[in-house]
Design goal:
The chain is of the alpha/beta class. The protein contains 7 helices and 6 strands; from the N terminus they run E-E-E-H-H-H-H-H-E-H-E-E-H. Mean pLDDT is about 80; it is low at about 155-175. The strands form 2 sheets. Strands 1-4-5-6 form a 4-stranded mixed sheet, sandwiched between helices. The chain has a two-stranded antiparallel sheet with strand order 2-3. It has a domain at about 155-195. About 45% of the residues lie in helices and about 15% in strands. Keywords: Cytoplasm, Hydrolase, Magnesium, Metal-binding, Nucleotide metabolism, Nucleotide-binding.
């Protein structure tokens, strides 16, 4: 059987990564940042205990939840900025985490790379963490392109700057078409081809 792909588009957390292993939840990219190496655990638990029940409350409308979810997201990002996370600490947190890609990931990533099929990962997670998970699993091939939220490290002292880059905070609400991902993929591949 021959499979032909022109492109593969995927989410990351709980799509390319496992949801659970040995009956324990596998951390998402944001959960890895919650590691006590990086962020004050009491602060994140307080935010989670406040906002998560709102997120899963079926009696609340999306319109009612939206401003509260934005408030939660903003507070988490402000907390990230205050922590002055260093890039080397981030790599260590990923290494010490229980993050894991799905079974068969190596065959999947390697097969796409071998056949030069672009893999576009669209994630509302943390791009720096996502890349580190893929890199530490030795499957960060040239065909992998990531659109996500990235931290902006100070390249001279490797400390967090006072801003969190969120220009690619991808949330496609009520858009079930592939128009946006296809347009992004066309842009990325045409930029690569023109270099």
């Amino acid at each position: 059987m021959c499979l032909l792909f022109s492109q593969v588009i995927s989410d990351f957390d709980m799509t390319l990564t496992r949801f659970a292993h040995n009956s324990k939840r596998v951390p998402t990219t944001h959960n890895i940042l919650d590691n006590r190496l990086l962020i004050n655990e009491d602060c994140t638990k307080k935010l989670l205990n406040t906002y998560y029940p709102i997120e899963i409350d079926a009696s609340r409308s999306a319109e009612e939840k939206l401003p509260l979810m934005v408030e939660w997201w903003t507070k988490v990002h402000e907390l990230l900025i205050q922590q002055k996370i260093r890039k080397d600490t981030l790599a260590r947190a990923v290494k010490e985490s229980s993050a894991m890609l799905r079974e068969g990931y190596k065959v999947f990533f390697d097969h796409l790379a071998e056949h030069q099929v672009p893999l576009l990962i669209l994630s509302a997670g943390v791009g720096d963490v996502l890349e580190e998970v893929i890199r530490q699993n030795h499957v960060f091939h040239p065909n992998v392109h990531i659109i996500s939220n990235y931290m902006d490290f100070d390249h001279t002292v490797e400390e967090r700057k006072e801003s969190y880059v969120n220009s690619f905070d991808i949330v496609l609400v009520k858009d079930e078409t592939m128009d946006v991902p296809n347009a992004i993929l066309r842009y990325i591949t045409s930029s690569r081809d023109n270099k």
